[in-house]
Design brief:
CATH topology of one domain: Rossmann fold
CATH class of one domain: Alpha Beta
Strand content: 25-35%
Structural class: alpha/beta
Largest sheet: 6 strands, mixed
CATH architecture of one domain: 3-Layer(aba) Sandwich
Strand order of the largest sheet: 6-7-8-3-9-10
Mean pLDDT: 94
Helix content: 25-40%
Shape: globular
Distance between the termini: 18 Å
Number of helices: 7
Amino acid sequence: MSKLLSLKKVSFYYNKGKPILEDINLDLYAHEIICILGANGAGKSTLLKVIAGIAEFQGELHFKNNPVDNLNEYKRNIAYIPSNHLLYDILTGKENLELIRNLWDVPKKLFWGNVSFYSDKLGMNQHLDTRIEHYSEGMKDKLFFIGSISKQPDLLLLDEPFMSWDIQSQRMVIDLIKKYKEEYAKSIIIITHSEHLRETLADKTYLIQDTKLINHFSS
C-alpha cells in the first residue's frame, strides 16, 4: 500500500506559548480512512488545518513521499471541508460549484460528471439552480461536500461532517465514501465525536490527548 501523507514531529503553538500539538507523527496510506477523536479544544481541528496547509506549524509534512513545498499544488490534490460551509448566499448552488471548480482549475468534464453523480445520490439535483439563501443548513453542507469531493482529491479532510444531514443522506454518504476510497485509491481523515461514523468508516482511530496523537485502536 502506497504512503500518501506523512507528518513528522509536527508541533503547533499559539503565539509561541503552550503547545496545542506537540511532536505529532502520522502516516496515511491509499485506501485508508482514519478517524481522530479528542475532547473539545484538544487540537483536532487545528491538526486538520495543519494538514490542509492553512495553519503554520513546526515539523515536516510530506505528500506522496515528497516535502510539501508548493502549497497551491498540494491543495489541488486535497479537499478540506470545515465544520462551517463556505458558500455565497446570493449565488445559486450551481454558481457556487462553478466557483469551486474555477478556484482549483478542475477539468469541466470530470467535475460536472462527479457533481451530477453525487447530487443525484444526495437528492440535490433539483436544488442546484436555487440561490443558497433559500437552502437549509443541511443543504448547504451537502452542496459544499459535493463541490469538494467532485474535485476527486487524493485526500479528503472532514471536520465534524454530516451533523446537519438527514438520516437517509448520512447512510448514503457513508456508502459513497467507502466506495470513493476503494475505487479511486483515495484517503480520508475524519474529525468526529460520532461513534457511528467511527465504527462504520474508520480503518484506524487516533486520539489527541495532552498535545499528543495516540494510536487509539483499529477497526
